[in-house]
Design a protein that fits this description.
By secondary structure, this protein is mostly helical. The protein is built from nine helices and no strands. It is elongated.
Length: 244
């Protein structure tokens, strides 16, 4: 009698809740990775490109980003006061990374130093090292606040993608019904091509805006990709072949 061999093991896929959790964890991972990349880039700029400016460049960027919020983001569908929301996000991230870890307290203690005449050679070298480390740490603190403000701006911009995406979806469904009742031809390749553009039109604004090395107005990044998202969604819904 032939022995029955067990079939291949089936891999159980996660449900909607599991996929949502995996997506959120992946999103958080990329946010942390982006913050580390911004800090490292700021350090490279201080060491090689703008050594004379130091952390002042990041401070100027932070002030400019907040000025954009005060002038052009007065109202929001998510919060009552967008500027206060962005400042609160930046302050909370600063408190978590630099105050609770004791980094800011160490920087404040390092300000107290002996007069140069009373310092030994080792103490002078140590003071120079501490001064340089404080310079880079202060730049990291400012770069973190700039990053947090930009994350807050992207969160506040989510309704723009939702509204334009809804308009594109409705327009595409109307065009689809008109094509069906008019006997028009269906284009499956256009649908698949447009469908591939939905993800990048949502992800690229986060990647480009958070990684931009200089001051940039949020509308210069958010608005074009929101319009692109609406167009891609309109094309994909207009060329969808199956019946809804």
């Amino acid at each position: 009698m032939a022995e029955s061999r067990p079939g291949p093991a089936t891999v159980k896929r996660p449900g909607p809740g599991g996929r949502l959790l995996i997506g959120l964890l992946g999103f958080a991972f990329w946010l942390v990775l982006g913050l580390i990349g911004n800090i490292l880039f700021e350090w490279v700029c201080i060491g090689y490109f703008w050594p004379e400016e130091g952390p002042k460049r990041s401070q100027a960027m932070l002030e400019e980003e907040l000025r954009y919020l005060r002038e052009d983001f007065i109202e929001s569908l998510l919060v009552d006061q967008p500027v206060e929301f962005a400042a609160r996000v930046a302050g909370q991230l600063h408190q978590t990374l630099y105050q609770k870890t004791g980094i800011e307290a160490w920087m404040n203690r390092a300000d107290v130093k002996n007069p140069p005449a009373q310092e030994s050679l080792f103490q002078q070298q140590r003071s120079n090292f501490v001064h340089g480390a404080k310079r880079y740490l202060y730049a990291a603190m400012i770069a973190t606040q700039v990053y947090a403000v930009r994350v807050a701006v992207l969160i506040l911009a989510l309704p723009i993608f939702g509204l334009l995406g809804l308009a594109g979806l409705v327009d595409g469904m109307v065009q689809r019904d008109l094509r069906r009742w008019g006997g028009g031809r269906e284009h499956g390749q256009v649908y698949h091509l447009a469908k591939r553009g939905i993800g990048p039109s949502l992800a690229l604004p986060w990647i480009i805006y958070l990684a931009w090395p200089t001051t940039v107005h949020p509308n210069a990044v958010i608005v074009p990709f929101a319009v692109l998202f609406a167009l891609v969604l309109a094309m994909s819904s207009a060329t969808f072949k199956k019946y809804l």
